[in-house]
Specification:
Largest sheet: 8 strands, antiparallel
Strand content: 35-45%
CATH architecture of one domain: 2-Layer Sandwich
Strand order of the largest sheet: 4-5-6-7-8-9-3-10
Number of helices: 3
CATH topology of one domain: Alpha-D-Glucose-1,6-Bisphosphate, Chain A, domain 4
Low-confidence stretches: 1-11, 13-17
CATH superfamily of one domain: START domain
Shape: globular
Distance between the termini: 27 Å
Helix content: 10-25%
Order of helices and strands: HEEEHEEEEEEHE
Length: 176
């Protein structure tokens, strides 16, 4: 997975292929980069209203059994249905990437070959942060791609970002 760091922000290879469905949201948060990274990586339930809580298992973390890192597992509880995610790239304070393990998740979505990324950059003042959130995935069944992208982007991701902007201040930069 070491090549993922150079691919964040581009279309990464997933399972030997390129994921055809992509979503990118870019926004500014009026918090320092260290706090923005913490919000986007570990404090999801504070701004992602559909996530009720998050639990972690760092047993396999490359940074030690009690520290977030590559191979840490995150379980996001969506009101009784969970998504199991594995951290596959981790650069503290700057970026991370995660994959949803649909086979181990209770929340079923018609996707496969998923990769999500967050990248955090300081603004020129250093007091605010630019966050870029990417989702790459394939449709699992014959679900129309436009409908699946709309569901992920407009029903899950955009409302979460709107809440983060409302709570911490900021603006949308790019919303496609």
């Amino acid at each position: 997975m070491t090549q993922l760091a150079s691919q964040i922000g581009t279309q990464p290879a997933i399972a030997g292929r390129r994921a055809p469905l992509q979503i990118e949201l870019k926004f500014q948060l009026d918090v320092a980069p260290a706090e923005a990274f913490d919000l986007m990586s570990t404090r999801l339930a504070e701004w992602f209203a559909q996530i009720h809580d998050v639990t972690w298992d760092h047993a396999r973390s490359n940074r030690g059994a009690s520290t977030l890192g590559v191979c840490s597992e995150r379980v996001c509880n969506f009101g009784g249905k969970s998504l199991l995610e594995e951290i596959v790239e981790f650069e503290p304070g700057r970026r991370y990437a995660y994959r949803i393990d649909m086979a181990k998740s209770q929340m079923k979505m018609p996707i496969r070959n998923h990769l999500g990324t967050f990248a955090i950059e300081a603004t020129s003042t250093g007091t605010a942060s630019v966050v870029t959130w990417h989702q790459y995935f394939d449709a699992k069944w014959l679900v129309p791609a436009a409908m699946l992208r709309w569901q992920m982007r407009d029903k899950l991701m955009r409302p979460a970002v709107d809440e983060a902007i409302r709570k911490y201040g900021g603006v949308w930069i790019k919303n496609k």
